[in-house]
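Here is this case:
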Amino acid sequence: MRKQFSPPPSPIISYLDLSLQLMLIFQILSTGLYFNGYFTNPLINKILLGEILALTAWLLFFWKAFAEKRLVLIWSPYYLPAFVLLVWAGIRSYTGPTPVAQDNFYIFALILSAFPLWVTEFRYARFRRLYIWGVFFAGLCFVIGGLRQLMLEEPRFDWSFFPAITLSKGEYERQTLGMFLGHNNAASAYIWITTIYAGYLWYSLRRSFFSALFGVFILCALTLIFYCGSRGVALMIPPSLLVIGVGLYLARFKKNKETKRNDHSQIVTPFWSRKAIVVGSVLIASLFILGLLISRAPLAQKQLVGVYNRFQTSTETLLSGTYPRVWLFSLVMVREKPLTGVGFSAWSYEYPYTQELWYTTYPQTKIGLPPINKFSEHAHNDYLQTWAELGIPGLLCMFWLLFIHARGIWKIFRSHPIPIPAIFAAAATVATLVHTTVAFPFHEAAASCLFLANLALVSWHVCDKKFVRTFDWLPQRATGPRGFMSAAALAVYIASAYPVYNYIVGDFGARQYKIYADYTRGMKDPATIHQYLERGYAYLLESTIYLPNIGPTYFTIGCETYGRAKRDGNEQLFLQGIDYLKRSLETYSYYDTYGHIGRAYRLVWELTQKPDYFEAAVTNFKNAVSIMPTFEEGWAQIGLLYAKNGQAMDALNLLAETELRFPGFIDRTIYQGALDMEAQGDLELSAMLFNIASTIKNVQIEKHFHETIAFYLRHDRPDMAVNMIAGSTENQTPESITKAVTYLLVNYLYQKKFEEAWQLTEELRKQETLQPIKEIWYFSGIVAWISGRPVDTLFCWEQALEKGMPREQLSGSYSVVNTLICTPHYLK
């Protein structure tokens, strides 16, 4: 029988097919490697980039279908549960409490929609090879970037010809090896997935010299994973290695069985050959030498200390840390709405209120509060977060998907022969699914796009159905209808992509002009600086036109507007900034957002003295501290508001109670705030804070008292210093009062202001609370003597003797003073 050959595809179809495949690969590379230091939030832009590239892939897919006159999709068993989950998430996004859910659902749906394209395109062996090498290339870039961060003080780079990529800048210890993802945990998880595929390439080329290059890559990757110190990634490694080991063993077993070699020892021998032992020993020794060389770098040594400390964390600390807290509050959300959940993408909106309710109901709980200036946007367990947001339907869909995936891996292991790429893809998916129990990879663009591609590679190997829809109604040369459909697809694409384009351009412009302004500050050109800042602000506003709820945009604009209002003293600008900040509360009720609103209301109240602004400021600060009781600045701000409003006792009582709840609060917040305000030139506020710090009893009250006296003297207000000393007799010991008076008088005598020093002692002696202190009279006598008043010296020292001053301390001094009095000069 004569074999039938299908005609080769036309050049346009081949071009569109290749473009589609490259677009999918580019989605993996861009979401992984893109980290633009000029954007205000690169991680948000990664998500938008993944969405827009998925949309572009669909455009190319439909163009190819119209050109080919048929639509081909590979059927996957994952489609049905994923579709049910998508529909339910869409319903809960429109019925949830926050408007950001609708925008997030749109992004979620588009990124998820790329899954059928991955499954379909994986039918080409060329594309499978391209994907594996693309993932390895991304991992290679991560390893190079990680080694650069580990070895250099300033690892970031700035390519003028390609500014879309640079290394992240860590703000704290867990971000020092963030590479292109901004955090050690996410970066090390990504490296491990790419290491799995590097292992596949090493296995495929193990008889070639080039396999040594992949071995070096694996060693470097493991070294970086170790230095990243992620406990979650440590959980990923054993199950993925187990899947690879079992899969390769079964593949070899079936291959041996096919060649009639069923003896167990013969099956195992290739795995433990002399060559394998030698190569393994060399690799292990190389790993040890590589780690030794890297550990000699100062930054690596510092990172190593952090790794050891992280893995030696006590059980008690772990149980009172972030993970148990967010898991518990996720279960509280489930308990509140078990059937429907709190709403798609509403976890971060509901979490602060759940935390507020918990710490109000159980103030003595052992569940620890998050550190100040840290907040949780995710449950650190995507299964729990899905359950909390989508309720029982979401939980059932999740189990449905996991069951299908487990069955798919089982089919791969039972297939004959076992496809080796599928084993490593299955290991990558299992690693991500395990990591999901302690992290949130499905909320990160890089990890979620990579997981979908790995899942599609597993799915393709177990799919045996193909969905084909031909466009028979189109004539062979019907260029008009096909052109119209292609144009319609392009129009839909532009309409869907333009909001993302507008957001990214606006975000980029805002950050770029801010950088220009910072650069120009060194030239001392206020007009140009103002022009750049105005342009950046306009770009920032423009980015919210179509996607107002994406990321912290409103929060950023609100803070910027609030800063401009603070500089200009403009009431309307204050209110506009407050409005932006209130809009940001619709997406995430972060406690410090209430803090920013409270600060803005406080400033506009000080500007206008309108009582409504005072009440609004107090209310917002109370909201902040109810969510985060350890937000000490909030308590301090409420106390300041009371003090400035004439409610001094309310202020002191509130701050005293806060000091009892959080020992050291006065020193950490009030006293440090006084120093900061003095440095900023706000002397009135600084004086108020110094007075509060030296009035409320705390372990550092003596230090605060003396620093307050020094503050008044620095700013030439001895009268306030005297009042401060006079009002502190109940809170300060006599020794502390004496020390303050000594400092006060010595300061004047050192400057040879003898007359002013005498007047100061007179003021001190007039204070009823200071009159019983013998040292006041003794010092007054000394100052009187120095300023030429020996009679007053005798009087003051007589009073000091009556108050308890030892006579022997004054005996020598008396003789000198009596001699001076008897001279003709003083008798005149």
